[in-house]
C-alpha cells in the first residue's frame, strides 16, 4: 500500500511508504524502537523492532487483510543481544519456538513445550528415577543436549539428565533448538544438540502482567512480570517471578498404593531479571540474573512395613554481565562474564522403622569469561569469533582429589554469501581442559536457492563430550526407587565389597570387566541434508535426512542385583552407535482463521558393536528367550531393536483456529509416539521384542483462549492428555490434566 504514514518512536521520525509499500529509516542508533503504521480508515498497527548495529538500513513490508493493517515483517535475521553467537550460524537444523507459540500451548514448564516438537521426546532415564526427566533430540539423550539461557550453559543434572520441568516458560522470548552436533558453537555437552532459551529484553513503555492457572493435581502456576524503559529509552529493565506447585501423581498403581507417587509433589520458585543500558552511541551494558528453588517430597508404600519418604531441595543462582561495543560499522565486540551455582540436598527415611535410608548433598559452581567479536569486511562476508576460559568446582570432596575443572576455548565462525543463491558457513572450535585432552570441533554448512520456492540445506558438524565426575566416581543410592548408581572407576571396588558382605544376589562379571576404569570421552559426527519448499504463501514444507555417528557413547547398564537393593547401575561406552532417520514438517494456512501443521520423524538408533557381537555369537548376546511365547533359540541380528527409550515413529499434529471478532483462539495438538523399549528383561544384554516396551500412545492437548479489553485480559482453559494415557514405565507422564486461569496486562497510556 502506498502513502502509509510510519512513525518511529522514540525519535518521532515520520516517513510515508512508496508506491510498492516500502519505507526505510537510515542511520539509527543501536536499541529497541517502536513502529506505528497509520492510515485513515484502517486500524493502527504498532510493532517493536530491536536494532543492534549502527549504520543499518531496515526495510519493511506493511501487509493488509481486508480493511486493517495487521502485520509488519522485518527482513533479516534475529538480532543478537548480549551474545554474538547466533543459533542461525549452526550448520545443523535450527527450530525457533516463539513466545506466542508458547502462549498458545498453555504450557507452564519447559518440558511441556519440548515434548510437542518434531524430533524431540521427553523421557525418564532408566537409572535416574522420577526426577531425571530429560529431553531427547533425534535419538540423542539428555546427556548430550546442552541447555542454555541467553547463551550461557545451565548446571544441575541428575545422572546426566537435565530436568526441564525446573524451568518456567515465564519471561521467555523464544526457544532455539539445534538438532545435531553443536560443539563448534558451545563446546562439550553439545554433542547431540542444544536448547537455548532467550529471555525477554528491551521495553518500549512501562507495563506489567499477572497470570494464574489452577486445576488438576492441585496445580498452581502464578506469574508476575514487569518491564519499563528508563533514561529516555536508553535503558530497559524486564523482571519476572513465578510460583509453581503440584501434588505429583502415581503412574504405577499396580504395585504402589494410592498414597504413593512416581512423580514427586513439589513447589518451585523462580525469579529472573534482565537489564540493558546504552552508555553511549556505541556501547551497551547488559546484566542478567536468575534464582530458582525447588522443594519436592516423594512417598512410596509397598506394604505397611515398607514405606519410604524422600525430600529433595534444589537451589540455583546465575548472574551474567556483558558489554557490547560497536567499534565501527564493520567491527563489534562483546565481553561476557557468567557465574552459576547449583546445589541439591536429598534425604530419605523408612517411616515405619524411623531410620534414615540415605542422604546426599551435592553442589557445583562455575565461572566463565569470554571475549567475542564480529567483523563484516564486506556485505557478503562475516566473521564471528572469540576466546574464553572457565573454572568449575564440585562441593563433594570424595569425588576426586582435584575436584575442579579448568577449561579454555577459542572459536571462529564465517558466513560467506558467494552468490545471490549460495550461502556457506564454516566454523571451528578448540576446547582444552585439565582432565581430558584438547578437542577440535569443526562444522560446515551450505544453503543453495535452487529456485525461488526451493532451498537446499546441507551441514556436517563434529561434537564431543567428556565423562563428568559423577560418571567416574560417585556412589549414589536412591532409596525411593531402590537402586544404586556407581561410577565406572569405583564399580569393581564397590561390588566386591558388597559381595563379600553377602549383599549381592547376581553380578554381571562380563559387563564389570568391560566397563571398569575404562570410560572414555564421546565423539560424534552429524550429517544433515534437507529441502525447504514454499510453493505458495499458504504452504511451507521442510524435509531432512540425518545421520549421526557416535563413538564411545556412554549409556547406563545394570551390572548387578542386590539382596536388598533391586538394581545396581554403572556406565559403559558403546564403541560405535548410530542415530539415523528423516524428518518432515509442513504448515498450511487454510484461511486467515485456520492453520494446520504436522511433523513426523523416523528414527533408528542402534549400537553397531552390539550387532557385531550378535553376528559373532558371543555370550550372552547369542541367546534369544521369549518368556511370553516360550521360544528359545540363537539370536539373529534382526532381533536387535535398538537403544532404550527411542521410538521409531513420532508424529505431531496441530490445528489452530482464530476468530478475531470474538477474540477466540483454539489450539488442538496431538503427539503420537510409537512404542519404544524401556529395559532388557531376558538377560541377553540387548533389546529385542521380548523385553519391556512402552506401547504406542497419543497425547491429545487443547488450549482455548478468549481475549477481552483489547487483549489486556485473557482467559485460558488448558487440557493436557485428554485421552488419559499412562504407563508404569513413563514415570513423568501424568493422566488427564485440566486447568483454567486468566492473565491481565497493564500498560501505561
How would you portray this structure in words?
With 749 residues, the chain is mostly beta strands. The chain folds into 2 domains: 5-74; 87-747, Beta Barrel (Maltoporin, Chain A), CATH 2.40.170. The chain has 7 helices and 43 strands. It has a 22-stranded antiparallel β-barrel. The longest helix is centred in the middle third of the chain and has 10 residues, at 491-500. The radius of gyration is 27 Å and the shape is globular. It is a multi-pass membrane protein.
Secondary structure: elements and pairs:
Blueprint: E1 5-9, E2 13-16, E3 23-25, E4 31-38, E5 45-51, E6 58-65, E7 68-74, E8 94-98, H1 99-105, H2 110-114, E9 120-124, E10 133-137, E11 145-149, E12 152-153, E13 172-179, H3 183-186, E14 193-199, E15 207-215, E16 219-230, E17 235-246, E18 266-278, E19 283-303, E20 306-326, E21 331-350, E22 355-378, E23 381-394, E24 404-416, E25 422-433, E26 439-451, E27 454-465, H4 469-473, E28 475-478, E29 483-486, H5 491-500, E30 504-507, H6 509-515, E31 522-536, E32 539-562, E33 567-589, E34 594-607, H7 608-616, E35 623-626, E36 631-634, E37 649-659, E38 664-673, E39 676-679, E40 692-694, E41 697-708, E42 713-720, E43 737-747
Parallel strand pairs: 11-14, 29-33
Antiparallel strand pairs: 1-2, 1-4, 3-6, 4-5, 6-7, 8-13, 9-10, 11-12, 13-14, 15-16, 15-43, 16-17, 17-18, 18-19, 19-20, 20-21, 21-22, 22-23, 23-24, 24-25, 25-26, 26-27, 27-31, 28-29, 30-32, 31-32, 32-33, 33-34, 34-37, 35-36, 37-38, 38-41, 39-40, 41-42, 42-43
Amino acid at each position: 500500500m502506498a502513502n502509509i504514514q510510519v512513525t518511529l518512536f522514540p525519535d518521532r521520525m515520520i516517513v510515508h511508504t512508496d508506491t510498492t509499500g516500502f519505507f526505510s529509516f537510515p542511520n539509527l542508533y543501536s536499541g529497541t524502537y517502536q513502529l506505528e503504521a497509520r492510515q485513515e480508515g484502517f486500524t493502527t498497527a504498532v510493532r517493536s523492532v530491536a536494532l543492534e548495529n549502527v549504520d543499518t538500513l531496515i526495510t519493511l513490508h506493511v501487509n493488509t487483510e481486508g480493511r486493517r493493517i495487521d502485520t509488519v515483517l522485518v527482513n533479516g535475521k534475529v538480532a543478537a543481544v548480549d551474545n554474538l553467537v547466533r543459533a542461525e550460524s549452526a550448520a545443523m537444523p535450527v527450530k525457533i519456538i516463539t513466545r506466542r507459540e508458547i502462549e498458545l500451548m498453555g504450557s507452564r514448564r519447559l518440558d511441556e513445550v519440548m515434548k510437542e516438537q518434531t524430533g524431540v521426546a521427553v523421557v525418564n532415564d532408566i537409572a535416574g528415577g522420577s526426577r531425571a526427566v530429560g529431553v531427547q533430540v533425534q535419538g540423542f539423550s539428555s546427556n548430550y543436549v546442552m541447555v542454555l539461557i541467553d547463551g550461557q550453559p545451565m548446571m544441575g543434572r541428575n545422572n546426566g539428565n537435565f530436568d526441564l520441568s525446573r524451568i518456567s516458560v515465564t519471561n521467555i522470548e523464544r526457544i532455539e533448538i539445534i538438532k545435531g552436533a553443536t560443539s563448534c558453537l558451545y563446546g562439550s555437552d553439545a554433542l547431540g544438540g542444544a536448547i537455548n532459551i532467550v529471555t525477554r529484553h528491551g521495553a518500549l513503555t512501562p507495563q506489567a502482567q499477572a497470570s494464574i492457572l489452577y486445576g488438576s493435581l492441585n496445580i498452581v502456576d502464578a506469574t508476575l512480570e514487569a518491564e519499563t524503559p528508563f533514561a529516555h529509552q536508553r535503558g530497559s529493565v524486564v523482571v519476572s517471578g513465578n510460583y509453581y506447585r503440584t501434588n505429583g501423581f502415581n503412574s504405577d498403581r499396580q504395585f504402589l498404593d494410592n498414597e504413593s507417587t512416581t512423580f514427586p509433589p513439589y513447589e518451585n520458585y523462580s525469579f529472573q531479571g534482565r537489564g540493558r543500558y546504552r552508555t553511549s552511541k556505541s556501547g551497551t551494558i547488559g546484566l542478567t540474573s536468575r534464582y530458582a528453588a525447588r522443594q519436592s517430597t516423594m512417598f512410596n508404600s509397598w506394604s505397611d512395613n515398607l514405606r519410604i519418604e524422600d525430600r529433595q531441595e534444589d537451589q540455583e543462582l546465575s548472574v551474567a554481565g556483558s558489554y557490547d561495543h560497536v567499534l565501527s560499522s564493520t567491527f563489534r565486540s562483546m565481553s561476557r562474564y557468567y557465574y552459576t551455582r547449583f546445589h541439591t540436598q536429598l534425604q530419605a527415611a523408612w517411616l515405619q522403622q524411623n531410620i534414615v535410608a540415605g542422604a546426599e548433598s551435592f553442589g557445583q559452581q562455575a565461572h566463565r569469561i569470554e571475549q567475542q567479536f564480529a567483523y563484516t569486511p564486506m556485505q557478503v562476508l562475516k566473521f564471528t569469533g572469540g576466546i574464553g576460559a572457565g573454572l568449575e568446582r564440585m562441593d563433594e570432596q570424595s569425588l576426586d582429589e582435584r575436584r575442579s575443572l579448568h577449561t579454555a576455548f577459542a572459536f571462529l565462525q564465517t558466513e560467506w554469501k558467494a552468490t545471490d543463491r549460495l550461502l556457506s558457513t564454516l566454523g571451528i572450535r578448540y576446547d582444552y581442559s585439565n582432565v581430558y585432552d584438547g578437542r577440535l570441533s569443526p562444522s560446515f554448512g551450505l544453503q543453495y536457492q535452487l529456485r525461488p520456492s526451493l532451498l537446499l540445506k546441507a551441514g556436517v558438524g563434529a561434537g564431543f563430550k567428556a565423562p563428568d565426575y559423577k560418571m567416574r566416581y560417585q556412589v549414589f543410592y536412591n532409596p525411593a526407587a531402590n537402586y544404586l548408581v556407581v561410577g565406572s572407576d569405583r564399580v569393581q571396588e564397590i561390588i566386591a565389597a558388597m559381595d563379600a558382605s553377602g549383599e549381592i544376589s547376581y553380578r554381571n562379571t562380563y559387563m564389570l570387566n568391560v566397563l571398569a576404569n575404562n570410560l572414555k570421552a564421546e565423539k560424534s559426527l552429524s550429517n544433515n541434508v534437507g529441502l525447504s519448499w514454499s510453493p505458495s504463501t499458504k504452504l511451507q514444507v521442510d524435509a531432512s535426512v540425518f545421520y549421526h555417528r557416535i563413538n564411545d557413547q556412554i549409556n547406563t547398564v545394570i551390572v548387578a542385583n542386590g539382596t536388598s537393593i533391586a538394581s545396581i547401575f554403572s556406565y559403559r561406552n558403546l564403541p560405535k552407535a548410530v542415530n539415523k532417520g528423516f524428518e518432515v514438517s509442513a504448515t498450511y494456512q487454510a484461511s486467515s482463521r485456520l492453520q494446520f501443521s504436522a511433523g513426523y520423524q523416523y528414527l533408528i538408533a542402534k549400537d553397531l558393536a552390539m550387532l557385531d557381537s550378535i553376528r559373532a555369537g558371543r555370550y550372552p548376546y547369542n541367546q534369544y528367550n521369549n518368556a511370553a511365547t516360550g521360544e528359545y533359540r540363537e539370536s539373529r541380528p534382526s532381533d536387535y531393536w535398538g537403544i532404550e527409550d527411542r521410538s521409531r515413529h513420532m508424529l505431531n499434529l496441530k490445528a489452530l483456529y482464530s476468530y478475531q471478532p470474538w477474540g477466540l483462539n483454539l489450539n488442538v495438538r496431538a503427539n503420537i509416539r510409537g512404542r519404544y523399549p524401556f529395559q532388557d528383561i531376558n538377560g541377553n544384554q540387548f533389546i529385542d521384542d521380548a523385553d519391556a516396551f512402552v506401547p504406542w500412545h497419543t497425547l491429545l492437548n487443547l488450549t482455548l483462549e478468549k481475549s477481552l479489553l483489547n487483549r489486556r485480559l485473557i482467559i485460558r482453559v488448558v487440557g493436557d492428555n485428554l485421552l488419559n494415557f499412562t504407563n508404569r514405565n513413563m514415570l513423568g507422564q501424568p493422566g488427564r490434566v485440566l486447568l483454567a486461569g486468566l492473565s491481565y496486562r497493564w500498560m501505561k497510556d
